[in-house]
Design goal:
The protein has 103 residues and is mostly helical. The chain is built from two helices and two strands, in the order H-E-E-H. It is globular.
Length: 103
Amino acid sequence: MTRKRWRGDPGQLDACFVASLVTGRLFLNVLGIGKSLPGLVRYLPKPDDVTLDNLGGLLIDPATRPSEEQTLSFNFLTMADKAAAYFTTPKDHDWARTHDGDS
């Protein structure tokens, strides 16, 4: 957050990265955005999932998003699934190649 090089325990930094992936994935799902090959789809919530329409809003139709945003969101959801949400074969996800939250 300070744009300074991290000098603490690498495990803490990794935990923050994984937490941001899970939180970002949850945020996109709440907005109504999910993924299925080959791209984004409307998120299909389970009966006990909370989505934006439960909160009085309207779900986003992923097909209406610009192509670049669809690609970024799809790649993010793929990274979040593989890196944090599911137990899968290990795959390196370079946190330095992710986008800043304000870009």
